[in-house]
């Protein structure tokens, strides 16, 4: 399995956009259109935010993760953020997510950051068991409870 920048794999932009649209846009009721998601992923970089990584094996995209400067407006003091971690269901349990997270931490460290943050509504146990430190629970503009975590980039 290889982890690469989506910006190096432009042929995967539509596939990544589809995964994220189905998992994070439709399910959350966001009004964002699919075309907007494609446009976003068409503009990701490898050395400044937003950054998107993809897990690849034999040309197949197994999953993705992004790095945003901020992923929670009410906590703009925290930077940067791991966002939109997604592994296709048929590849779950194979360490794809862990490899994407490890590469994300490496990228953030190379960019000069000592910490990485994330928000989750329903995967707190996943991150706790992988060494992330719980910081707080907040409510967003939709009044959803969001757990905020951080990890040291060492």
UniProtKB/TrEMBL annotation:
InterPro entries: Acyl_CoA_acyltransferase (IPR016181), GNAT_dom (IPR000182), NAA80 (IPR039840). Residues 3-154 form the N-acetyltransferase domain. Transmembrane segments: none annotated. This is GNAT family N-acetyltransferase. GO terms for cellular component: cytoplasm. Gene3D superfamilies: 3.40.630.30. One of its GO terms (molecular function) is N-acetyltransferase activity. Pfam families: Acetyltransf_1. It comes from Neobacillus notoginsengisoli. Keywords: Transferase. PANTHER family: N-ACETYLTRANSFERASE 6 (PTHR13538), N-ALPHA-ACETYLTRANSFERASE 80 (PTHR13538:SF4).
């Amino acid at each position: 399995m290889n982890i690469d920048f989506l910006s190096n794999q432009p042929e995967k932009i539509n596939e990544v956009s589809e995964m994220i649209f189905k998992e994070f846009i439709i399910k959350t009721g966001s009004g964002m259109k699919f075309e907007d998601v494609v446009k976003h992923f068409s503009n990701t970089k490898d050395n400044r935010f937003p950054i998107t990584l993809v897990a690849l094996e034999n040309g197949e995209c197994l999953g993705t993760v992004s790095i945003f400067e901020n992923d929670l407006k009410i906590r703009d003091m925290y930077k940067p953020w791991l966002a939109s971690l997604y592994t296709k269901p048929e590849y779950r349990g194979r360490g794809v997510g862990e490899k994407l997270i490890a590469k994300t931490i490496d990228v953030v460290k190379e960019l000069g950051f000592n910490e990485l943050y994330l928000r989750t509504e329903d995967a707190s146990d996943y991150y706790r068991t992988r060494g992330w430190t719980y910081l707080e629970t907040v409510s967003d503009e939709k009044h959803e409870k969001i757990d905020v975590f951080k990890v040291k980039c060492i």
